[in-house]
Design goal:
heterotrimer; A alpha/beta (295); B alpha/beta (271); C mainly alpha (349); B: 271 residues; 11 helices; C: 349 residues; mainly alpha; globular
Chain lengths: 295, 271, 349
């Protein structure tokens, strides 16, 4: 056993640890978001996803049955919770992934994990989902990968139609008002700027973000900024909502004075912050709250 | 035992400093000091605290850069000596030894570093030199103990063994006896005399115990204003250099052929 | 060391016996522990594979991949990285004559963190940057960053003439570079996740390539250091004494600093910021046997290797099938050891 191990070690050291790729008929050839070419000998049946939005996309395309494992944060749909978890995106457990013998691992850009998996001959498919446009692209890409392009196109159409309908209705109910909104993403405070995914959502619904594009997608703010811009509606986590009045100067803000606060439960929040196939639900949640509390 | 001085009177002094000026910033510790140390003699540097004894020794060892002046070792400028040759011909013992985890033997063995170099290993002559040096300082008994487990006096004797192991022609010792009890102080003094007179080693030591310092062959007396005089011990006593250095607080008496310092503990009027 | 026995006629020397053979025994013990740990690494893992010789001998291709391409390089790589950190720690402690010195002293940790942050943010910004940083990888960025951090420290302290100024400059550089890193992270919260993974240290991505890089680095660092060990011995007696023995202090410092940078930067590049191994390994060696610097360096390398290998094993086993970041394990182990040392000192005081 030891001799065998040493022989392998010697070969690897001498040849510089090159991976050997299987050369076979390659009916699936795709280019992923990181511009790497993926070649699969046949339709991938064993899939691992490393981001909740990617898991949801796979399931929304009706291919949940092909999933063999997900990351620890994926929690929708319910069936996914029974699958083995392989860690997060940056600290994925390489050994567990390899031992599950996946046909492809779908992930977002993560240098070390991608590199290591490729070294071990595990096919990876890089998908970026940070903007709305990228959602549609990623659904289409995954649809191509899983060989269900028609379902992907349908899904995209549905999402788009639903979003358009909600957006139109929201604008109608707002009439010509443009409420000033502030969406707090995290303690810091970190706000969602107009260029972020959430910011896009808000502007489509006819709201005006107190943050400007120059600040970036998720800037850490001076709380004074929020006070000065006096938003009409504040989106915040349910834990922070009761304490808003205690923040220095915040009791002067219109949204706090008039109790125009929107908070969402963790499940609903998932649909808002995850750029995946359930964005329409998130859209609806935000639109409903806005219609309710906007002045 | 032949008189070391007869050996010592050669044309080329073992070590010489000319117009040596050493200072830290604006403060001058040594100002245009010139000294000559003859070969094969034991010279004591004496003087009150802060007059520059350590600084002089350091400068002679090449550990300080003087502001001006020249130092020669065996007739050649000190700066022109290649590092390793200088290490072989000039040994240095500091006043304060940093705490170390080395064993006594390893410490003494480091004295041979200048001979073996980085890569060489110890030869028979190196081991013999180490043994001689440790025997001379009575430190063989704790050769395998770590320095940090020894007392101050024991450590000092090991350090002395180290500098003796170099078997250099010139030794510069800064306070080699501070932690030793009188019998061992006597041992050290005897060893130094023997090295100088029988082996022709030139020794310059700063010793602040006057009685011990006076057992050397020559004295360099320094005072608050600089160098007061250099010469044999007798010359120093005749010229009353010590009173000049320490003010009138020094009384030297002669007893059994040895010069001793007598402390005056009663009032000045009782003299 | 046998000469010590010959020269010393009394009991104190006799009780320590022959120093060289004690050291050889100690080395053998380390080697044995390493083998045991390597074997354990092969059979303990996140996949619940049964602990049996039959499985080890089975010809399954898949288990071979897990075994030979994941676990074995990980075990060997951890050992090599730990050895590099151990050597770095021994050098740092000898160079600064301070038992609390460790290899990250001179800004290498903060430099590596900054390098990784910059490369992650650049990869996010543009595709060409992505291609470049893809080539370089997190490992390359960390390596370059660590080297740059040390270079900055040496420049700030204006050469290697003063040990005290090196230490001070190292502290300044560490604060400065961490501040810059934090600023960059604020502007790009997405990279925060990846940075966390790096900061906590991780042996999870070690491949045969990593092991090769680490092995070469260890050879390149260990051999000259062992040759320079005598100079470190002399340095323990004081800088003036070392100079009087014929050692050029600036040259010695420069050589040691270069080796320290290479060792630390390579280790940090491959496993991230793993703390305590560099600090604790030399201490463990000194506590167990009497050593000179040459033996200390070899011993610290072996000890560091064993430590990190053991930490890797614990990180994989403790909360299986999940994994602890290895930096947390080393912090716990190292922290406990230091607490133990303090307690022992208080008792003997």
């Amino acid at each position: 056993m030891i001799r065998r191990g040493l022989t392998i070690l010697l070969i690897l050291l001498l040849s510089g640890a090159c991976a050997r790729r299987a050369v076979a008929d390659e009916p699936i050839v795709l280019r992923d978001a990181a511009q790497h070419e993926l070649r699969l000998p046949q339709r991938p049946e064993r899939i691992i996803t490393l981001l909740p939005s990617l898991t949801e996309t796979v399931c929304a395309l009706g291919q949940c049955g092909r999933l063999v494992a997900t990351d620890r944060y994926s929690n929708w749909p319910d069936s996914v919770n029974r699958l083995p978890k392989v860690g997060g995106l940056e600290d994925a457990q390489i050994e567990l992934i390899v031992s599950l013998k996946p046909d492809v691992v779908i992930l977002a850009h993560a240098t070390r994990v991608t590199q290591r998996l490729r070294e071990l001959d595990v096919p990876t498919f890089d998908v970026e989902t940070r903007t709305y446009a990228e959602i549609y692209r990623s659904v289409a890409a995954i649809g191509r990968l899983l060989e269900v392009p028609d379902r992907a196109a349908t899904l995209n159409r549905d999402i788009e139609r639903t979003i358009d309908a909600i957006a139109a209705k929201a604008r109608q109910s707002l009439r010509s008002r443009t409420p000033l909104v502030y969406f707090e993403v995290d303690n810091g405070p970190y706000g969602a700027g107009p260029e972020s995914f959430i910011g896009e959502m808000l502007s489509r619904l006819g709201a005006h973000n107190i943050l400007t594009p120059e600040l970036g997608p998720f800037p850490k703010l001076n709380p004074e900024y929020v006070v000065r811009h006096n938003p009409d509606v504040i989106f915040i986590s349910p834990k922070e909502a009761p304490n808003l009045g205690n923040r220095p100067g915040w009791d002067q803000i219109r949204a706090v004075r008039e109790a125009r606060i929107c908070s969402f439960s963790p499940e609903v929040r998932d649909t808002i912050v995850r750029p995946g196939p359930r964005v329409a639900e998130g859209f609806k949640a935000v639109a409903d709250c806005l219609a309710r509390v906007a002045p | 035992m032949p008189d070391g001085l007869a050996h010592g009177v050669l044309d080329t002094p073992a070590i010489e400093a000319r117009e040596l000026t050493v200072g830290y910033g604006a403060h001058r510790v040594l100002d245009r000091v010139s000294i000559k140390i003859p070969v094969g003699s034991w010279t004591s540097v004496v003087g009150p605290n802060g007059c520059g004894k350590s600084t002089l020794l350091r400068a002679l060892a090449g550990l300080l850069t003087p502001v001006s002046g020249r130092i020669s070792l065996q007739g050649r400028p000190l700066a022109s000596w290649p590092r390793r040759d200088r290490a072989r011909h000039l040994g240095w013992l500091p006043q304060w030894a940093a705490p170390s985890e080395l064993t006594a033997f390893e410490c003494a063995a480091l004295g041979r570093f200048a001979h073996t170099g980085w890569l060489g290993s110890r030869q028979a002559q190196d081991d013999a030199a180490i043994q001689r040096a440790m025997a001379a300082t009575g430190s063989l008994a704790w050769a395998a103990r770590r320095l940090s487990t020894l007392s101050g006096g024991e450590r000092q004797r090991v350090q002395l063994a180290r500098v003796l192991a170099v078997e250099a022609a010139t030794l510069l010792l800064d306070e080699p006896t501070t932690h030793l009890d009188p019998p061992h102080q006597e041992d050290v003094a005897r060893t130094l005399r023997e090295q100088a007179h029988s082996c022709g080693v030139t020794i310059v030591s700063a010793i602040h115990e006057l009685s011990l310092a006076l057992t050397a062959d020559r004295l360099i007396v320094m005072g608050p204003g600089g160098l007061i005089g250099q010469g044999t011990v007798q010359e120093a006593l005749n010229g009353d250099w010590l009173s000049q250095a320490f003010g009138t607080r020094i009384k030297i008496i002669s007893h059994d052929g040895t010069s001793l310092w007598q402390p005056r503990l009663r009032g000045a009027s009782d003299d | 060391m046998s000469t010590a026995g010959a020269l010393a006629p009394t009991g104190e020397a006799a009780q320590t016996g022959d120093g060289a053979s004690r050291f050889a025994l100690w080395l053998l013990a380390c080697g044995a522990i390493t083998l045991v740990l390597t074997f354990a690494s092969l059979i303990v893992g996140t996949s619940s594979i049964r602990n049996s010789i039959d499985w080890l001998l089975s010809p399954e291709a898949q288990s071979n991949t897990v075994l030979w391409h994941i676990r074995l390089p990980r075990a060997i790589g951890s050992w090599l990285a730990g050895a590099l950190l151990g050597v770095g720690g021994a050098i740092a402690q000898g160079l600064f004559r301070n038992p609390l010195a460790e290899p990250y002293l001179l800004g290498s940790a903060s430099g590596a963190a900054l390098g990784v942050t910059v490369s992650l943010i650049a990869a996010d910004t543009s595709l060409t940057a992505l291609a470049w940083t893809g080539e370089l990888g997190v490992t390359g960025a960390a390596f370059l960053g660590a080297g740059a951090g040390i270079a900055l420290t040496v420049t700030l302290s204006r050469g290697v003439l003063q040990t005290a100024s090196l230490l001070l400059a190292g502290i300044v550089v560490a604060y400065l570079l961490s501040a810059i890193t934090s600023l960059l992270l604020l502007s790009s919260p997405d990279t925060w996740r990846a940075m966390q993974a790096f900061m906590l240290g991780s042996t999870a991505f070690l491949s045969w390539r990593s092991a090769l890089i680490l092995g070469v680095a260890l050879l390149v660092c260990a051999v000259p250091t062992i040759l320079l060990a005598r100079g470190l011995d002399a340095l323990t007696l004081g800088e003036e004494t070392a100079e009087s023995l014929g050692i050029s202090l600036p040259a010695l410092r420069l050589a040691l600093l270069t080796i320290l940078s290479l060792a630390t930067a390579t280790a940090v590049g491959q496993v991230g910021l793993v703390g305590f191994v560099g600090l604790v390994a030399p201490h463990l060696v000194r506590e167990s046997i009497l050593v000179n610097q040459r033996q200390l360096l070899v011993g610290a390398a072996l000890c560091g290797g064993v430590l990190l290998q053991a930490a890797d094993l614990v990180s994989r086993w403790a909360i299986r099938p999940a994994e602890l970041p290895v930096g947390i394990v080393t912090a716990c182990l190292g922290g406990s050891y230091l607490v133990f040392l303090l307690w022992r000192r208080a008792r003997s005081a």
